[in-house]
Request: fold
Amino acid sequence: MNDSGLSPAATALRRALGSEAFLNGLPIGIYCCDRDGFIRQFNRRATELWGREPEIGETDERFCGAHKLYRSDGTPLAHDETPMADVLRTAVPARDQHVLVERPDGTRWHVLVNIEPLFDPDGAFVGAVNCFQDITELERVHEALQDSKDELEDFFENAGIGLHIVGADGVIARANRAELDMLGYTREEYVGRPISEFHVDGPVIEDILSRLFRGEALDRYPARLRAKDGSVRHVHITSSARFRDGIFVGTRCSTLDVTRTLEAEERALEGEQRFRDVLETFPMAVYTTDAEGTITYCNPAAVALAGREPEIGVDKWCVTWRLFKPDGTPLPHEECPMAVTLRERRAVKGAELIAMQPNGTRVRCVPYPTLLYNRNGKMTGAVNVLVDITDRYRAELESAHLAAIVSSSSDAIVSKSLEGIVQTWNEGARRIFGYDSEEMIGQPITRIIPPELHSQEDDILARLRRGERLEHFETERVAKDGRRIDVSLTVSPVHDRFGRIVGASKVARDITERKRAEELQRLLISELNHRVKNTLATVQSIANQTVRLARDPAAFAASFSGRIQALAHTHDLLTRNSWQGADVLSLLRDQLLIGGAEDERITFSGPAITLDPQPALHLALVLHELGTNARKYGSLSVPAGRLSVRWSVETNGDRRFLLHWEESGGPPVKVPTTRGFGTTLIAKSLAAHDGEVSLSYRAEGLLCEIVLPVSERANEGGAFWTPRQLETPAPAIHAPSTPTRGRDARVLIVEDEAPIALEVAATLEEAGCKVVGPAATLEKAWEHIAAGGFDVALLDANLDGNPVDELAAALTRADIPFAFLTGYGRDELPEAFRQAPMITKPFTGDAALDVLARLAGRNVSAVPIRKKGV
Reply:
């Protein structure tokens, strides 16, 4: 091939890599520049990657044919700062440099650049060649390797054939034009001269002539001839001797000029070695096979991917140790894409596989096998490029996991730009704010922010730009339907792979219900504070009024304790009904039936009605005063006495509750000469609710009429009658194994409130019992149980927040009867002991002693209580 007209750089490239057709067949972009940076030659792949075709020669374009260039971090790269410019300045190769190429249409491609300086045969630096490949897709590295070999062969196939005749004396007798043209001689300069003068190697021509004289035929005998210009032509000589009458008279020779062929072969070998050197440094796995699938070559990247060194000439189909399909199913090598490609003569590309290395490591890869053909169209083998996608698969898997988390999260997860434009919007955001993703993506986030809080978003964006993270920032947002939603925000900056902040991710949790719960809790605490203070004020009032009218401390203690008990029972009743009100029948039974036991002397009759909390509390105090008076002085003080309580509701105009209290069969009633606290309490309590009371002191028994306005909320049901059992009877209590004597019952008190413990101890000691303890902690209680020395135990249901289940179980195992001393209801007692006897706080001495007597199996309450100070 004639290289005239090409620049020194293009000539050096042509000599190193071959013809323009060969360059255009390579799967990588190649172009060369002269020393001044002017583009002298480029291949088709280069124009594909550039997206344009630059002009060749001394134009304004230098160093590169790309429209625009950028460094790998995205910063612009001037053409005179490119790796090609550096190589042309330094004559030092550039290896594996990453550059971002932008096409005229705006698309960008990452390429891997390898640049070699070019030298002419004399060693002068004439330019450089740039081999760059698209590493964005990595799909066409395997372009027609066989074509390169065919191109090299085509480079040398057109040589002329010289013909000449040599006489018996070794002198050239005749020569054709092709031979003369081959050597550059005229006919006069060549014919008639000894053939040996034109052979460079004397022994070679002597051997040729000797063999011809002996009658041997020569077929393509290699030799070297000297041309007129001093150059040496490599030829193949095919010759036979001519004899006449057995006498050697000369030879007929054909001289095939193979100089260009030999030179081309040398260049091809050099180019193939150069290309192989490129493959050796190529970052992707590449290997070749023959037509039968036997591996003929693999680069180091293929060895690294396979985790093993394949045996060249022995291993078949693939360099890997074992193969699996993406679902984990084993894939025999003879069924791999390379084997199918060779067997079915069709390329099987893009089928994802899993390669297992001998150490168990699994590598996900995508093969791109391509068949190779010689110049005659015969398939000679294949080349396969294995693209490692393990990192990409892991990233996709992680991305899928994150996407699933984001999609299924009940929180709103939103990403936005640094300008506050929504970029993603998950299902949680739709549920909370009511907007579909199509309505929000591309819109400003301020769409869901109240107008008065827009400045808050500006502050958030400013902090994000500084790289700050916001955690649990509570604020308000607006839903699609206009509702205000309380949210807790966590906002984090989003960085690209270069560490630049490019946006933000926001997690918004709907805390509206929590805020409502907090507000409700605040209201409940406030209401509790109000009710506790009211209760304390009531207790204070009862104490003050009782002490003013009490005859002595014992009378005060009995009256005050009874009234507090009445108040406590009503509180229990209201608590069971969540302080929504109290049933009238339950109020009557709590205040009139001692210990809940039925009393046949008392009858109740009336509709089911629930009173509001405050009227219920005051009515309870009234009923307590009436009941106490009846038991001390009235009809209930004697066995033959009777008490009838009837009530009804009138709805003429305002709704009114009417209660009729009628005593009979008791001692003769006398009109009191003075008005006591009880009478005053009855009148004042009812007057506080616009109620009225009339008391008639008949000789046969007290008659009381009560009228009390009730609200529309008061529930009224059907009629009922008594007696009726409401409480589950307490289980039988077994007496202790060791009998106790009358006044020496030993009682363990477990109570963490010191005033209550002291009061219980004083009550029991006055009744003649011996007190063990009190124990205020679990540790002290365990010490007393371990030490023994008591017959009965009174057990607080909760010791400073600690349950007493194990204490109760230990007492049961020791066969020691016990009762709970608690302000809780039965539902709050330890589950296994909810039917145990119970003394309710606040307690009365009579109630406590009654329970204690039943526990100890004797009537402790019959022991007179010693009055303090007597």
